[in-house]
Amino acid sequence: MTAGRIAGRVIVALAAAVLIVAAGVAWYAFSGRYSIAATEPHPPALEAAIDEIYHASVARQAAGIEAPALDRERAAAGAPIYAAECAMCHGVPEADREAWAEGLYPLPPHLPEDGTDLAAEEIFWIIREGVKFTSMPSYRHALSDEEIWSVTALVERLHGMTAEAYEELIALPAEEPGAGDAGDAEADAGDPGNG
Ligand code: HEC
Fold first, then answer.
1. pLDDT average, residue stretch 97-107
2. How far is ligand 1, taken at its centre, from the CA of residue 100, in Å?
3. 54 and 3, same structural domain?
4. Domain count, the chain
5. Same domain, yes or no, for 28 and 70?
6. What pTM value is reported for the model?
7. Same domain membership, residue 97 and residue 160
8. For a substitution probing ligand 1, which of 46, 90, 125 has the most ligand atoms within 8 Å of its CB?
9. For residue range 24-36, what is the model confidence (pLDDT) as tens digits?
10. 20 to 30 Å CA-CA from 93: which of 6, 115, 121, 153?
11. 194 alpha carbon to ligand 1 midpoint, in Å?
12. Do 160 and 154 contact (CB within 8 A), yes or no?
C-alpha cells in the first residue's frame, strides 16, 4: 500500500470515530439520560475546564476597562446597593446567603468569606455583563456604570469584613463619588466620566 492510501484510510477511520462519538453524545443527551438537576454537579474535569474558560474570558473581556479611584466613600455608596441587589446570593459579613441561594448551581461565592481573586475591572465587567449559564445577572439595565463602580469598591473590601464594619459603611452618608477629595465639586462638573 502506498503512503497516500494509508493516509487516506487513517483519515476515514478518524472521521468514522468522530462521527460515532458525536452520535453517542447526541443519543445520550437527547434520550434524557443526562440530568440537568442543579443538585448534580458537573464531573470535576468539566468543572475545571469551565473555570479556566471563565477566568480567560473575564480577563480578556475586561481588558481596556480602567477603574476610577475606589475609595471608602465609593464603597459606602455601594453598600446599600449590595445589600439590596447582591446580599441574598453572595452573603453579608457574618451571615449566610438566603436559603434558596444555597441551592443555586454554580453556588455563588460568599464574598465576605471567600473573597475574590478578580481585579476591580473584572469585578465591574462581571456585574455589568453577568455570567452565562449561571444565576449571575447582568446589571446593565438596573444600575448605572457609576453605581456598578461603587458596588465594585464595596466588593473589593468585603473579604474578611466584620458585621460591625459593614453596618458602619451602610450608615455613612452617601456622597457623590469623587466629590470627597475634589474639594471643589464645581471643578468636576465638566468631567464626562466613563459612562
Ligand atoms: C441570583 C444570584 C446572584 C445575584 C443576585 C448576584 N450574583 Fe454575583 N454571582 C452569582 C453566581 C452564581 C456567580 C458565580 C458564577 C460562576 O461560578 O461562574 C456570581 C459571580 C459573581 C462575581 C465573581 C466572583 C469570582 O470571584 O469569580 C462577582 C464579583 C459578583 N458575582 C458580584 C455580584 C454583585 C456585586 C451583585 C449585585 C449587584 C451580584 N453579584 C448579584 C450569583 C448572583
1. 97
2. 15
3. no
4. 2
5. no
6. 0.85
7. yes
8. 90
9. 999 999 999 999 9
10. 121
11. 23
12. no
On whether both 64 and 131 belong to a single domain, the answer is yes
Q: Are 11 and 103 found together in one domain?
A: no
Neighbours of 117 (CB within 10 A): 7
158 assigned to some structural domain: yes
- pLDDT confidence of 175, banded at 50, 70, 90? low
What is the CB < 6 Å shell around ligand 1?
54, 82, 85-86, 89-90, 101, 104, 106, 108-109, 116, 118, 123, 126-127, 131, 134-137, 139, 151, 155
| Mean predicted confidence (pLDDT) in 108-114 | 98
For residue 6, the enclosing domain spans 1-34
Q: How far is the CA of 81 from the centre of ligand 1 (A)?
A: 14
In tens, the pLDDT along 34-54 reads: 999 999 999 999 999 999 999
Same domain, 54 and 137: yes
